[in-house]
Amino acid sequence: MQKTFGMIAALYGALAVILGAFGAHALKAKLDAYQLEIFNKGVQYQFFHVFALLAVAFLANRISSQTLVFAGWSFSLGILFFSGSLYLLATRQLLGIESFSAILGPITPLGGLCFIMGWILLLLSFKKL
Known about the structure:
- By secondary structure, the protein is mostly helical.
- The protein has one domain (2-126).
- It has 4 helices and no strands.
- The longest helix has 30 residues, at 66-95.
- The chain is elongated, with a radius of gyration of 16 Å.
């Protein structure tokens, strides 16, 4: 579990840097201010939750619990759903997927719920220390 969540955190961390740079440089001229703000919000939340995943990875050798495992998967899915949907919503015109808005819109709050669940499960995991 420690290796798995450490690797997921590292991958998502690298992707956050890449996407942040891509948004700041390549997309700056192609997106309006609001779209760029949405894209950057995705990068921000991805970075925040990379650190949560790192906490899960480091706690894994001190706490052996399903609660911690579920926290790690909640953070991982939260990044995918929340940040991923924001990236797609911000670039939907550029990608020609405007019709996906009705699908992508509801995915964002599901990702937020995954984040909330991850934090609550992490709290419960800390109680086991």
